[in-house]
TrEMBL record:
Organism listed in the record: Verticillium longisporum (Verticillium dahliae var. longisporum)
Name recorded for this polypeptide: Uncharacterized protein
Top-level taxon in the UniProt lineage: Eukaryota
Gene Ontology CC: extracellular region
Record NCBIfam families: choice_anch_B (TIGR04312)
Length: 326
């Protein structure tokens, strides 16, 4: 909008022209769009957010940057010259199945990015193997070397879809689980995602609420929402049930991280089982290196005790284990 051009994504057929990549159009006169060029260097682009760059990477300040979600990577483009745009970086991540969409934390200070993968829950892959929606957190302070630093997970089994940032809140449409609102204000201080919490939700598909985990990872429900009205109203789009206009009347607040001796933590530090604490400490040492792990890598004793949403609960338990002595 600021630069008065549009970008077409998800273009088909993929075997023509720019292979389904970014397509640029001059929109100074919206009634007469002008083709400005395209970029197919990384093939198909499912979604993208394009902004005038304002952030800590001084090399690109004032440049026209697109953050592309390209099926298996976060791909960052410099599109200042639409006829000769280039790829700055192309980065994949553990659990990649269908890199779908994402949003930066602040268009005026582009340091962090939140991204979803649409198929990882359905295909039970990586940190989404338990069916709870995973949002991937990226440190984008270096556009040439973005780093995936952590994740946060939804409280209800479902598939995550479009998400948008407004202030410190993310409004994420999670198909059958409806719109979930997350407080992400903790991310600059804790980029692992452990401090992110869900503060509100609007469930538009209650039929599956009695299923294990409170829902079913399926392609029905809400695709998107719009939370930028000055009135505070939120428009919620759905596949089968039209649109809803809702408003947050109350919200939860993120609790300070604390160690509580639940079954998950008890199982991992059990003093009655010889060597259990040391085994857990060794596991946690590897598990927390990347903050993203496959559920199948969690020890059976921990997986059983931690129940639903295993990755999040094991991560919290690891934080509470005593440090291994040398």
């Amino acid at each position: 909008e600021e630069a008065q051009y549009g970008v077409a994504v998800g273009v088909t057929p993929r075997d023509q022209g720019c292979k389904g990549g970014l397509h640029f159009f001059d929109l100074k006169d919206p009634s007469k769009p002008v083709d400005l060029g395209c970029n197919g260097d990384d093939g198909y682009v499912h979604d993208a957010q394009c902004l005038i760059y304002r952030g800590p990477d001084s090399k690109y300040v004032g440049r026209d940057i697109c953050y592309g979600y390209n099926e298996d990577t976060l791909t960052i483009y410099d599109v200042t010259d639409k006829r000769n745009s280039t790829i700055i970086s192309r980065t994949s991540y553990e659990g990649a199945e269908y890199t779908h969409q994402g949003w930066v934390n602040d268009v005026n200070n582009q340091e962090w990015l939140f991204m979803d993968d649409e198929y990882d829950e359905e295909r039970t892959t990586g940190p989404a193997a338990d069916g709870y929606p995973v949002t991937y957190i990226w440190d984008i302070k270096s556009l040439e070397n973005p780093k995936q630093t952590g994740i946060y997970k939804g409280s209800v089994r479902s598939i995550d879809h479009n998400q948008y940032v407004n202030g410190d809140l993310i409004y994420q449409s999670n198909y059958g689980a409806g719109v979930r609102v997350y407080d992400v204000s903790s991310v600059p201080q804790d980029p692992t995602g452990n401090g992110v919490c869900e503060i509100a939700y609007f469930d538009i598909y209650p039929e599956d609420d009695d299923a294990p985990g409170g829902g079913v990872p399926a392609f029905s429900g809400s695709w998107s929402s719009y939370a930028y009205f000055k009135s505070g109203y939120i428009f919620v789009n759905t596949i089968e049930r039209g649109g809803y206009l809702v408003k947050m009347t109350k919200r939860e607040f993120c609790k300070a991280n604390a160690c509580s001796a639940d079954n998950c933590l008890r199982a991992m530090r059990a003093s009655t089982i010889s060597g259990r604490l040391e085994e857990s400490q060794k596991f946690c040492g590897e598990f927390t290196k990347t903050f993203v792990a496959d559920v199948s890598l969690v020890p059976e004793y921990a997986s059983k005790a931690c129940g639903q949403n295993v990755i999040s609960r094991v991560s919290s338990a690891c934080e509470c284990l005593p440090t291994a002595s040398s």
